[in-house]
């Protein structure tokens, strides 16, 4: 039974879900005595905040889309937060269809993962091009790092510039840093002492969270959309911390001849099939080991050593993941391309004479070729 106060459902101040005290396996559960806590949060949020422990409670994907579809009928500023490390994996497909004519401010989080010497104007232009390719019209783009508090002054300026007297809807896929950024907005725009649940686990926010602002408007945090083509949605909780970098990426450069293979633990594999001797730069989290071998030995090596020499994941965890599928790409001359693996990182092709390459990754994981980010 949903808890009520003055006829209204009591909601978790962490994730926004209506609270209930009867079914521990359903979203919004908390023990009855916990209703006396201030602020009132569900058991799931309590465990995340105090023990860094996630629960398996999820909300139906159709509910997420139904919530998003309401934004087009509002007069609002829409802030779309994406993860620079998983850019193509965290962009909301067809967002323009949901938001109608409302202005969209694209906020690109986790720029602290790129080298400090990066050309930020080029990065911004790259983001603008990629967003346009996906049909998203933006009024502005802000590069930031919620964790390092970089770019946040510019975000506040942009919100002030484009909001007017509108509400602000914040949208994004799971695990892009959405709640962390909203907590910063709350501190600047509202006297309300409320902190959204933030963790590294996907799907932390389960329902719309309405945060009133001092001018009578509100910031509305929407649930994170769960996209199954991202590694973050298929790996174990232990491996999620390994895959998701929390420090600047250290590019790993490999000089390869045709007929050589790189394994990224037992998560994915990169084959250099045809082309002149050239270098490839891998941008992945430092917790995932890279193993080089000959292409002719790659299948046997995986069969005999996946989960051991090639790890993570373990053999038991591999059994829980989809089987690998193969993606082949011909890289044209002078293309300056990355091979992107959603949630794992990317490999930059540094040669200018073209190459034939293949990527093996769990079925359903998004793998594509894009213009080089760096």
Short overview:
The chain is of the alpha+beta class and 374 residues long. The protein has helices at 43-51, 61-69, 87-90, 95-99, 120-133, 152-163, 178-189, 237-243, 295-305, 315-319; strands at residues 4-5, 8-9, 76-83, 104-109, 140-143, 167-172, 209-212, 218-221, 252-256, 260-264, 268-274, 278-284, 290-294, 324-331, 337-341, 345-349, 355-362, 367-371. This is Ribosome biogenesis GTPase YqeH.
Summarize the structure in words.
Pfam families: MMR_HSR1, YqeH-like_C. By secondary structure, the chain is α+β, with helices and mostly antiparallel strands. Helices cover about 25% and strands about 25% of the residues. It is built from ten helices and 18 strands. The protein has helices at about 45-50, 60-70, 85-90, 95-100, 120-135, 150-165, 180-190, 235-245, 295-305, 315-320; strands at about 5, 10, 75-85, 105-110, 140-145, 165-170, 210, 220, 250-255, 260-265, 270-275, 280-285, 290-295, 325-330, 335-340, 345-350, 355-360, 365-370. The strands form four sheets. The protein has a six-stranded mixed sheet, sandwiched between helices. A five-stranded antiparallel sheet has the order 9-12-16-15-18, with no helix packed on it. Strands 13-10-11-17-14 form a five-stranded antiparallel sheet. The longest helix has 14 residues, at about 120-135.
SSE map:
Layout (H helix, E strand, L loop, with lengths): L3 E2 L2 E2 L33 H9 L9 H9 L6 E8 L3 H4 L4 H5 L4 E6 L10 H14 L6 E4 L8 H12 L3 E6 L5 H12 L19 E4 L5 E4 L15 H7 L8 E5 L3 E5 L3 E7 L3 E7 L5 E5 H11 L9 H5 L4 E8 L5 E5 L3 E5 L5 E8 L4 E5 L3
Parallel strand pairs: 3-4, 3-6, 4-5, 6-8
Antiparallel strand pairs: 1-2, 7-8, 9-12, 10-11, 10-13, 11-17, 12-16, 14-17, 15-16, 15-18
Pfam families: MMR_HSR1, YqeH-like_C
Organism: Paenibacillus lacisoli
Protein name: Ribosome biogenesis GTPase YqeH
């Amino acid at each position: 039974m949903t808890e009520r106060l003055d006829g209204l459902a009591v909601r978790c101040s962490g994730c926004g879900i209506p609270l209930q005290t009867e079914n521990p396996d359903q979203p919004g559960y908390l023990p009855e005595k916990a209703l006396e806590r201030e602020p009132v949060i569900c058991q799931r949020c309590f465990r995340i905040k105090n023990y860094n422990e996630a629960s398996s409670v999820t909300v139906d994907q159709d509910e997420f889309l139904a919530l998003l579809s309401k934004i087009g009928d509002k007069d609002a500023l829409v802030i779309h937060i994406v993860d620079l490390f998983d850019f193509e994996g965290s962009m909301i497909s067809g967002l323009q269809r949901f938001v109608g004519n409302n202005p969209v401010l694209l906020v690109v989080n986790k720029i602290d993962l790129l080298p400090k010497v990066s050309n930020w104007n080029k990065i911004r232009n790259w983001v603008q091009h990629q967003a346009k390719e996906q049909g998203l019209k933006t009024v502005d783009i802000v590069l930031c790092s919620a964790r390092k508090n970089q770019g946040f002054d510019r975000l506040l300026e942009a919100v002030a510039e484009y909001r007017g007297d509108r509400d602000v809807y914040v949208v994004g896929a799971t695990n892009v840093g959405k709640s962390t950024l909203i907590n910063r907005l709350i501190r600047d725009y509202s006297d309300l002492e409320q902190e959204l649940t933030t963790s590294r686990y996907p799907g932390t926010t389960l329902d719309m969270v309405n945060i009133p602002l001092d001018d009578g408007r509100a910031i509305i945090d929407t649930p994170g959309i769960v996209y199954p083509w991202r590694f973050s949605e298929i790996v174990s909780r232990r491996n999620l911390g390994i895959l998701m970098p929390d420090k600047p990426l250290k590019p790993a450069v490999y000089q390869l001849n045709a007929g050589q293979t790189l394994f990224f633990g037992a998560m994915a594999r990169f084959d250099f099939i045809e082309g002149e001797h050239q270098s490839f730069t891998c941008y992945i989290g430092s917790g995932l080991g890279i193993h080089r071998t000959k292409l002719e030995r790659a299948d046997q090596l995986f069969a005999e050593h996946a989960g051991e020499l090639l790890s993570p994941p373990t053999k038991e965890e591999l059994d829980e993941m989809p089987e690998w599928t193969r993606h082949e790409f011909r890289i044209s001359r002078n293309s300056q391309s990355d091979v992107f693996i959603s949630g794992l990182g990317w490999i930059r092709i540094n040669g200018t004479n073209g190459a034939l390459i293949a990527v093996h990754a769990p079925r359903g994981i998004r793998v594509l070729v894009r213009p080089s980010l760096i």
